[in-house]
Amino acid sequence: QVQLVEFGGGLVQPGGSLRLSCTGSGHTNSGYAMGWFRQAPGKEREFVAAISWSGGSSQLADFAQGRFKISKDTAKNTVYLDMKNVNSEDTAVYYCAAEPRGSVGLWYMDYQRTGTISGSWGQGTQVTVSS
Question: Which residue in 2, 44, 60, 127 could disulfide with 26, CB within 3.0 to 4.6 Å?
Fold first, then answer.
């Protein structure tokens, strides 16, 4: 069982930047992709970004392109989500996830189709964009 712990949520002003981090422990061996999802009040949880075990490939949702960046420190088994130029629509609980996946692109497409993952979730961290 994979355990995931997120850090870095909080209050940020519109146009500002924020970094989220997620550290995994347990069976996060080779082959586990890690990613970020978010859920705003009254909305379904949506895919934000994912990165492969090696960090060599990544996938971003359309709304994240150009504003968010996902990266990974494999030695620390920690994944980061750097958010910039945030707006009120980015207000949500952000969840880290890990799943044995060879292709983050397929993980994205499968989530779009099913709305579920077969791996593990973190506890979530609140991001609020407000002036």
Answer: 2
